[in-house]
Amino acid sequence: MPVHAGGCQCGAVRFALDEQPVNVHICHCRMCQKAVGGPFAVICPVQKTAFRVTRGAIAYFHSSDVARRGFCGACGTPLLFDYPDAADVGVLVGALDDPNRAPPENQYGLESRVGWFATMADVPGDLPTYSDDPEMLRRISRSNHQHPDRDTEQWPP
Ligand SMILES: [Zn+2]
Ligand SMILES: [Zn+2]
Fold first, then answer.
1. pTM of the full predicted structure?
2. Is 87 part of a structural domain of the chain?
3. CATH number at residue 104
């Protein structure tokens, strides 16, 4: 059993990590914000020898001459940050089946951190999701095209 497994939203790409990531970190840099379509990236570095693609193939965008961003070419889910010459590769935490097991230990790119980062956790929210609209939750559940957070026997299903 790998230490972590993960993949994209559609399930065309699946991968496995054979070691626990080291120095999991938040990156606030503007390139990471764009690459993940979010306020920051959470990057989980693992040795390339401990990273295996178990289904499909990862597509890449070279964000500079020295770094590239891995994603699923079918659904667009961001998956990796990679310096091709480095011994390790950065897996994006949201692509892991269990992001809870890779908490960040450090932050980089603080000069680009969004001004509302510190108050984000205090913004009001509802729990569980769509508790105010159970019919919407049923419609989403009945038509869910997201791959489950585990490896599956075959793809497409
Ligand atoms: Zn996909
Ligand atoms: Zn960054």
1. 0.94
2. yes
3. 2.170.150.70
Which tens digit of pLDDT belongs to each residue from 61-91? 999 999 999 999 999 999 999 999 999 999 9
What does the block give as tokens for 132?
Answer: 């105010």
Q: Which domain holds residue 98?
A: 4-115
Indicate which ligand has the atom closest to the C-alpha of 7. 1
Q: How many domains is the chain built from?
A: 1
Residues around ligand 1, an ion, CB closer than 5 A = 8, 10, 12, 72, 74-75
Kindly state whether residue 156 falls inside one of the protein's structural domains. no
pLDDT of residue 53: 98
Low-confidence spans in the chain with pLDDT less than 70: none
Q: Are the beta carbons of 16 and 5 closer than 8 angstroms? A: yes
Neighbours of ion ligand 2 (CB under 5 A): 27, 29, 32
